[in-house]
Amino acid sequence: NIYRQKLLPLEKEYNFHDFHSPALDDPDFDAKPMVMLVGQYSTGKTTFIRYLLETDFPGIRIGPEPTTDRFIAVMHAETDGVVPGNALVVDPKKQFRPLSKFGNAFLNRFQ
């Protein structure tokens, strides 16, 4: 692909991966686009996701007080479930590998 032929050699020559981000792998190109929702608590983020999915999702909690103290990646799968962040960053088929640099404090809140 173009990245491996044109960009990766330049990134290696100028040590780009030493100061910015690791080289991209196939999961980075094969992954579906992602959207991040950010906002104050109780503003409808979870309700919006439920509306788009037309169903509830694992780990959902809704209430008038802050209920979501985690980063949640909602993805399609054959079965419902919650995958811990530590497992997501080591899965070679997922695009979350670069998040490992944020450490266990972040990964414990990521699912």
Mean pLDDT: 82
Beta-strand content:
under 5%
What distance separates the N and C termini? Answer: 31 Å
Number of beta strands: 0
What is the count of helical runs?
Answer: 6
Query: Spans with pLDDT under 50 lasting ≥5 residues?
Result: none
In which range does the helix fraction lie? 25-40%
For the CA atoms, what is the radius of gyration?
17 Å
Major sheet summary line: none
Q: Please state the structural category.
A: mainly alpha
> How would you describe the shape?
elongated
Element pattern in H and E: HHHHHH
Protein model, in words:
This protein has 111 residues and is mostly helical. Helices cover 37% and strands 0% of the residues. It has helices at residues 2-13, 16-19, 26-30, 45-53, 85-90, 103-107.
Main attributes?
111 residues; mainly alpha; 6 helices; 37% helix; elongated
